[in-house]
Design the sequence.
């Protein structure tokens, strides 16, 4: 079955540590997105990518980095510069241009310890 | 002004009643609108989308869009306890640079009590 796989489901980060969240899709979608969700809040866009080897900053990109070396993969690195990284991270994809909704992964819950 | 704003919750309705969720948006060029349901600790799932003015019905769900008033709503008829969740409104803006990017509201928590 096609879908988006995020891993790990839970992740713990120590102060000053970089961590990478994985997002893989087998839907042949062109566009991929990373959102952050804090308790009681909606989704805020971190980064998005329309095609391989290209990506754009979203509304809250500071302290995060991404890469898009393959169409299927869009990993997110939470760097030590992100001072408040504890949140629920969601990866999503769409076929591309047009009136499509998102397909979401199951999310990664990141906690700073 | 937030780009997408939802009626503040939480909203509590009795089982069998109609739940009404509302959303306003600021981008007049928005082309499409989506309603997602999110259970606690889970990722959002798409339940309705609407592009044209008027009503769109799917089972117990009806989405209503009024572009002149920049308003979109979701009605849930015969509400069930299993409908208890956070409902997220989202829109896709106009223009080529948006490339499918959705902007989400802050969500409305719905509780359906027996």
Sequence:
């Amino acid at each position: 079955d096609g879908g988006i796989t995020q891993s790990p489901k839970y992740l713990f980060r120590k102060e000053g540590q970089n961590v990478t969240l994985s997002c893989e899709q087998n839907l042949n979608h062109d566009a991929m997105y990373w959102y952050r969700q804090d308790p009681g809040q909606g989704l805020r866009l971190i980064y998005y990518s329309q095609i391989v080897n290209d990506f754009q900053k979203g509304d809250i990109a500071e302290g995060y980095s991404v890469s898009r070396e393959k169409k299927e993969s869009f990993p997110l690195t939470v760097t030590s510069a992100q001072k408040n990284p504890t949140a629920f991270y969601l990866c999503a994809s769409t076929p591309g241009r047009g009136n499509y909704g998102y397909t979401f992964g199951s999310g990664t819950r990141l906690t700073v310890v | 002004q937030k780009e997408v704003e939802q009626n503040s919750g939480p909203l509590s309705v009795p089982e069998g009643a109609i739940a009404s969720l509302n959303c306003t948006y600021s981008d007049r060029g928005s082309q499409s609108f989506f309603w997602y349901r999110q259970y606690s600790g889970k990722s959002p799932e798409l339940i309705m989308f609407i592009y044209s003015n008027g009503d769109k019905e799917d089972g117990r769900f009806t989405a209503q869009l009024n572009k002149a008033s920049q308003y979109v709503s979701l009605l849930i008829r015969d509400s069930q306890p299993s409908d208890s969740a956070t409902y997220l409104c989202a829109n896709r803006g106009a223009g080529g640079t948006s490339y499918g990017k959705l902007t989400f509201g802050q969500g409305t928590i719905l509780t359906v009590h027996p």
Observations:
- The first strand of chain B starts at residue 4 and ends at 6.
- Chain B touches chain A at residues 4, 31-32, 34, 36, 42-46, 49, 51, 88, 92, 96, 99-107 (CB under 8 Å).
- Chain B is about 0% helix and 55% strand.
